[in-house]
# Entry
Amino acid sequence: MLKRQRPEVLGLLTAFITGIGIDLWLYLVNDLIEPEHFFTKFIFLGIGLIIIGLGTAIYLHANFAPIPVDHLMLIIRELTGISIMFSKTLIYLLFLAMAFLFNGPIGIGTIFTVCTGGPILNFFMPLVTKFIKTNRITAGDKDKTHSA
# Structure
């Protein structure tokens, strides 16, 4: 509605695949890894946020249909000109407000995610861009050396 275009239906497929991946991961490692202490839980949360930020940056650069939340983030960035960090944080704040409104479960992990999710994604986006551009140039140079 914000861009006055039809909704991105493929984004639902991406969200469905992501959900299956998360469920499968939790099923496989649920009994293997169960941190007991607060510090260990905090370390695992940090590692998870870093992996999510890197994975999101990679899949956004793939130009495959982003999940609806990430598509909204990109639309907000495009319409307002604010950075990905602020767009993502704005969406996380909206979800936090909805959790308060509907008495959802809010813990320190939720607050930590709201505060760091946007900056982590913002950190990885240019790194992934640079990596992709470097590999395209390198691949192009290799093709030139093998000409007949």
